[in-house]
Amino acid sequence: MPGLEDLYREIILDHYRTPRNRGELPTPPASVAQGHNPLCGDEITVYLQVDGDAVTDVKVGGQGCSISQSSASMMSQAIKGHSVTEVKALVRRFKSMMSIPDPGGNDGAADHPDGESNDAGVSGSGGEVPDLGDLEALQGVVKFPVRIKCATLAWNTVLEALDRSSAPTAS
Amino acid sequence: MTTSTSRPSAPPADHRLDVGADLGSLKARFPLLAREIDGAPLHYLDSANTSQKPVDVIEAMDHFTTTSYAPINRSAYRLAAEATDAFEAARARVARFVNAGNPDEIVFTKNATEALNVVAQSWGGAHLGAGDVVLLTHMEHHANIVPWHIMATRQGIELRWIPLTTDGQLDLTDLDHLLDGAKVFAFSAMSNVLGTINPVADLCAAAHTAGALAVVDACQYVPHNVTDVQAWDADFAAFSSHKMCGPSGIGALWGRAELLDATPPFLGGGNMIADVRVDGYTPAPVPAKFEAGTPPIVEAIGFGAAVDFLNGVGMERVHAHERQLTAYALDTLTDRFGDEIRVHGPTNPTERGGMLSFEFRDLHPHDVSQVLDQRNVCVRAGHHCAKPLMRVLGAAATVRASWYLYNDRCDIDAMADALDSASDIFGLPTPRT
């Protein structure tokens, strides 16, 4: 088994202890989505303020393990101020880093044939994709397969919040 | 149904196990526990989840598979009769283990969950209607909740709940009021999270006084205690083989004969019928009525062997050994971590079974479990399939360490050492002791 230092990087523990963008946004106008990991009880709530094509604000709530909560904190930093298209590309890039194939397979992000030696995992696609930044610290999670769902919970939840923001306000 | 008249194959001989006073030598009978990971021994502390298997069970299943395996209850040749006899002998052993009135009161199911579903959906389907009350407790796991939710949706039954005291016991203050008008009282004999051992016979008596059936979820209790369903005066009891040194894929529903007779079949198919016509069918008598299709035959043999193994050790000794380990674990964790560890459930080892659910400092149970795994300490982290209870405890998740007859103090010490390293990794000062 790889060492825990691959999993619990200092930057991850920092985001866990001091989560960024913690809180709520009024809904509406913000959209909100909740994600659960039924296996372990991790919970993430993502509030998104989308104006036009831009994610102008994001807040995160919930509770769970260090990986799920730090991933959510880093996600909130990484997407704020970016366009919806860029955020979706970032989600694909992050999931690719987590060795999760892109079901659409349309942007070349899922170009890692196996989950074994996924070293960088973030090179390549278009310049408009926001930088992974601190998120690269989470690539060690791939070596601990049971924790991948912890790391991706916030990302699946933000996709759901994006879908809701694009839906008619009546819903 | 084919009835065998041939001589039964010789069942595996009962083992009178020669074990030391502390049961420590038993570890050697469990091949998996000899496994090392990263060159270090394994500390398996997840037996409330599922137990490891002794060589006695593994060999009994292997022996049956290689010498006597054949269909049961449906073919006339000698080999099939032999297999049928072995299968029924296993049922008789399981029946004796819980002191059932007769072997036919034991229905083999897939697991305890299926057994509880038979009670809720089949017995309940025939005997419960809109507004009928089923009383549950806040310490139930999902297997004794969701089947009743299904019946609430399907037939409009009403669910009531017994709350808990702050130390994880059932709060029986309003029991009579809650039982008033109830048709069923379904409760666990031992909590799978808190370890609380409930006063089963008293609860059965209270149910009967109120005119309710007593349904006992005994899957945590039977593996660790002397069980006597008649002394309980229960109506139904459910338990699983895999938590008591037997294989997974088989469990048991015990029910009083007249109640099983009054319960419609759960699944339809072969083996569960006396007759099938184009215009209908006649079910077989119990227990076959509830055993549609080819059952887990080899697993039944293993279940019987597990019961033999446990009888060989002696359930009083199993219980005493676990109680000693519980006291040792409570002392060790309290001594080493003081207020930094929050243990749920009764603090008196005599009021609980062999498990501890706890929260450690402000670390999330997943992270604790991850660090413990690095030291080969296997514990469960999560909601333990008891989400209503977790809400009562105000915890989204806990770490649960649970032990069995094959565990020893080294396992507890290894867990405590690993908790220290969790503090280090998360940059917390070593707890004062």
Compact overview of the structure:
By secondary structure, chain A is an alpha+beta fold.
Any overview of this molecule?
The complex is a heterodimer of chains A (171) and B (433). Chain A has helices spanning 10-17, 66-79, 84-97, 148-166, and strands at residues 31-37, 42-51, 54-63. The longest helix of chain A has 19 residues, at 148-166. Chain A starts with 9 loop residues before the first helix and ends in a 5-residue tail after the last helix. In chain A, helix 3 runs antiparallel to helix 4 (148-166). With 171 residues, chain A is α+β, with helices and mostly antiparallel strands. Chain B is built from 13 helices and 17 strands. Chain B has helices at residues 55-67, 78-97, 112-127, 146-155, 175-179, 200-209, 229-232, 257-261, 297-313, 315-337, 365-374, 387-393, 409-425, and strands at 36-37, 40-41, 43-44, 106-109, 133-137, 158-162, 182-188, 213-217, 236-240, 251-255, 273-277, 280-283, 341-344, 355-360, 377-378, 380-382, 398-402. Residues 1-16 of chain B have low confidence and may be disordered. The chains are: A alpha+beta (171), B alpha/beta (433). The interface between A and B is medium-sized, with 18 and 20 residues.
Task: Supply database-style keywords.
heterodimer, A: 171 residues, alpha+beta, 3-stranded antiparallel β-sheet, 4 helices, 16% strand, globular, B: 433 residues, alpha/beta, Aspartate Aminotransferase, domain 2, Aspartate Aminotransferase, domain 1, 2 domains, 7-stranded mixed β-sheet, 4-stranded antiparallel β-sheet, 17 strands
Instruction: Assign the CATH architecture of the largest domain in chain B.
Output: 3-Layer(aba) Sandwich
Instruction: Give the helix tally of chain B.
Output: 13
Question: The CATH topology of chain A, please?
Answer: Sufe protein. Chain: A
CA radius of gyration of chain A: 15 Å
Question: How much β-strand is present in the residues of chain B?
Answer: 15-25%
Order of helices and strands of chain A: HEEEHHH
CATH class of chain A: Alpha Beta
Task: Give me the oligomer status.
Answer: heterodimer
Give me the number of helical elements of chain A. 4
Rounded to the nearest angstrom, the distance between the terminal CA atoms of chain A is: 47 Å
Q: Biggest β-sheet of chain A: count, sense, barrel?
A: 3 strands, antiparallel
Strand order of the largest sheet of chain B: 4-10-9-8-7-5-6
Shape of chain B: globular
At CATH level 3, the topology of the largest domain in chain B is Aspartate Aminotransferase, domain 2
H/E topology pattern of chain B: EEEHHEHEHEHEHEHEEHEEHHEEHEEHEH
